[in-house]
Amino acid sequence: MVSRDRSTPTRGPGTWRKQTTCCGPAQRAAGHLVEVGRGAGAPRREGSLVVNQTPTPRPDVLDRAHDARALFDVLVAQGVRGEPATRAQALAVLGTPDEDLLDLVAAAGRVRRQWFGRRVRLNYLVNLKSGLCPEDCTYCSQRLGSTAQVLKYSWLSTEDAVAAARAGIAGGARRVCLVASGRGPSDRDLTRVTAMVGGIKTEHADVEVCACLGLLREGQAERLAAAGADAYNHNLNTSEATYADICTTHEYADRVETVERARGAGLSPCSGLIAGMGESDEDLVDVALALRALGADSVPVNFLVPFEGTPLAGTWDLTPQRCLRILAMVRFVCPTAELRLAAGREVHLRSLQPLALEIASSIFLGDYLTSEGQAAQADLDLLAGGGFVVEGADGDGRAAAVPGEPTTTAVARGAGATSGETGVTVRRRGPGTSVAPNA
Ligand code: SF4
Questions:
Q1: Tell me: domain 118-426, CATH 3.20.20.70, correct?
Q2: In whole angstroms, what is the distance from residue 260 CA to residue 254 CA?
Q3: Atom number, ligand 1, closest to the C-alpha of residue 134
Q4: Which parts of the sequence bind [2Fe-2S] cluster (predicted)?
């Protein structure tokens, strides 16, 4: 029964009060309501049923959405021409409200598809030398003074490094990243790494090899290039203005110099950032613009994994939505760069990883340097579910998605140990252990 109270509304449109005139006591006890001064679009109640009507548009929301779409249209037009976002535009992207987040992802996705289509490149990390670093980068579990219970070992043999790379390549990786802790390589270290590069290239000439060995001195990038390395990674990590807050043993300028040395030697410059260290929006935009200015071909975006035993332990500042905004900002600032979802994607993006892949074009397969990633099969399921194309895979490269087949997208843990209450799983498999790698 619906009964409209014709008396003067006292509580505004769309409000309700108990029926007082035509229901019996039982109905009143059941809480039957009558509508008082309903406005257009408010729900209508019929007996115990609430009937939804078309909601009233909110002009403030429409205006904001209109402004946001106008900005996104400009960013897409620039991005498909390979033109970077301005500083003001990049800051506006980071300020996008949650209500407009899917429009932002769609816009960044249009730029991504312009340059990379639906393809995803898989990268594989081989940690050649773990822990015991003399540098003091606050975010790093391998830093001087770190009490994080990470694996610590000296240089892998060439055979072990090539075997680890082989496992990643068999899993679908098309770039292998050879990483060593430390301030930078000695010439003897470089001799080891050039042998590893040669060993991998002999077996897999079509697979890219990227070295990441810290600060390079004069002539070292040339040696890597001569050995067949394709790229060199050295992240800027954060803005110049805040670099001293995250490291005191070397400077931002040292990192810039190494990226320039790598590029000067003909190596593809790979350099990225870490988000979630307490930086401001301005810092994130500054580092993205600096990466663009340096000509970084590939840009890893890391989300802080705050290990227990490091100064940033317990720093969980990121939300999945914030991560998407950061990725979109980097995509618009560096529209043609290979944008890589790097460390922390599983724990920070969580169920929004598929949306992140609409923006990024590359991920690490398997584990990270000192923490475990989700199971390699879960990564492949993720790509299949999103309809992405794995670069270099057989056939058309499309990961096989079987309708209705259950997937394993939950993080599958290896033998790793959870670090305190953080949920970070310390790597206990792959290089430096006797346990099979996650690939
Ligand atoms: S980021 Fe590199 S240089 Fe810094 S502490 Fe970690 S391993 Fe050492």
A1: yes
A2: 10
A3: 8
A4: 177, 210, 270, 340
Pocket test for ligand 1, best of 136, 139, 143 (most atoms within 8 A of CB): 143
pLDDT tens profile 399-435: 444 444 443 333 333 445 554 445 577 888 888 888 8
Find how far residue 178's CA is from the centre of its chain. Answer: 20
pLDDT digits (tens, 9 = 90+) for 327-340: 999 999 999 999 99
Distance 136 CA to ligand 1 centre (A): 7
Residue 233 pLDDT more than 60? yes
Taking 50 as the threshold, does the pLDDT of residue 76 lie above it? yes
22 is catalytic: no
Question: What residue ranges do the domains of the chain occupy?
Answer: 1-56, 59-112, 118-426
Task: Tell me, yes or no, if the pTM score tops 0.85.
Answer: no
- Our answer to whether residue 23 is catalytic in this structure is no
Active site includes 247? no
Q: Sort 395 into a burial class: Cβ within 10 Å, 0-12 / 13-18 / 19+.
A: exposed
